[in-house]
Each structure stands twice: as structure tokens, then as C-alpha cells.
């Protein structure tokens, strides 16, 4: 294997790794955003009086 092809191969490997890291970062950011939206949804849906009492029939 000559130097040129080795250099090209190494460069392609580095590029593939950089692309993979970028994709994972995007997925992580989206996951964090969805988690924050889920927490906000739960906070909005909280009704403090709901479920505090229940009727028992015998």
C-alpha cells in the first residue's frame, strides 16, 4: 500500500467518524428536546385535586 492510498483511506475513516459523531449529537439534542417537552406536558397536565379522594361503595 502506498502513502497516497493510505492517506486517502485514513482521511475517509476520519470523515466517517466525524459524520457519525455529528449524527449522534443531533440525535442526542433531539432526545433532550423531546424529554423537556414531555416534562412540560406533564407539568401542564397536573391537577392537584384530581385523585385526592375516591368513593367507596359497599
Your description of this structure?
It is a single chain. It contains one helix and no strands. The protein is mainly α and 58 residues long. The longest helix is centred in the middle third of the chain and has 43 residues, at 3-45. The protein is rod-shaped, with a radius of gyration of 26 Å.
Compact overview of the structure:
The protein contains one helix and no strands. The chain has one helix at residues 3-45.
Number of strands: 0
Biggest beta-sheet profile: none
The shape is: rod-shaped
* SSE class: mainly alpha
Give the CA-CA distance, first to last residue. 86 Å
The helix-strand sequence is: H
Strand content: under 5%
User: What helical percentage do the residues reach?
Assistant: over 70%
In terms of per-residue confidence, which ranges show pLDDT below 50 for 5 or more consecutive residues?
Answer: none
Number of separate helices? 1
Oligomeric state of shown chains: single chain
Mean pLDDT: 88
Gyration radius, rounded: 26 Å
List keywords for this structure.
58 residues, mainly alpha, 0% strand, rod-shaped
Give me the secondary-structure topology.
Blueprint lengths: L2 H43 L13
